[in-house]
Design goal:
By secondary structure, this protein is an all-alpha fold. About 60% of the residues lie in helices and about 0% in strands. About 20% of the residues are buried.
Length: about 160
């Protein structure tokens, strides 16, 4: 369990120490000093990488690649959307959520799609051969002869919760 933590931490500090952090809006370094970094952002990336590793058996690669970093803002938008319509259900009845909160609704749909993608990718691998993630434990065990399985809707919901964890 500790190897992913050690590897991810080494990777993060290797990126920061070599200056290969791949951020376009970084201020220039002063003579003798490295460029300043938003450490809160970098620790957010490493947290997501580790949660991906522990929950889904693979890193989200946010430290190394920009490709999935948008999901952090997407989660925020999606949760904000759920919070708003959860407290004002009349918006849904009147179908005003898209008109009033289009960015948040888009974030919610994108987050749901991302969660489903994570669930489907985990379903493709052989989970019980060597259960290496929390999600693997939700999938049926072929060795035990278990035919019980969760629907893709249920697994997507679980995936969504694990990403938020």
């Amino acid at each position: 369990m500790e190897q992913p933590l050690i590897s991810a931490t080494q990777n993060l500090f290797r990126h920061l120490s070599t200056g290969k952090v791949n951020e376009p809006e970084r201020p220039q370094a002063s003579k003798g000093w490295s460029s300043p970094q938003d450490m809160a952002l970098w620790f957010n990336y490493i947290a997501f990488d580790l949660m991906g590793e522990y929950c889904f058996g693979k890193s989200f690669d946010m430290v190394d690649k920009k490709k999935n970093r948008h999901i952090i803002d997407t989660i925020s938008d999606g949760v904000q959307c759920l919070n708003i319509v959860g407290h004002m259900p009349k918006l849904l009845e009147l179908r005003l959520e898209n008109l009033l909160f289009s960015r948040l609704v888009h974030g919610l749909h994108e987050y749901q799609s991302y969660s489903e993608t994570q669930a489907r990718e985990c379903m493709k691998k052989n989970p019980k051969k060597n259960a290496q993630s929390v999600f693997d434990l939700l999938l049926p065990d072929p060795k035990a002869g278990s035919e019980e399985t969760f629907s893709i809707t249920e697994l997507t919901s679980e995936s969504s919760l694990l990403i938020l964890a």
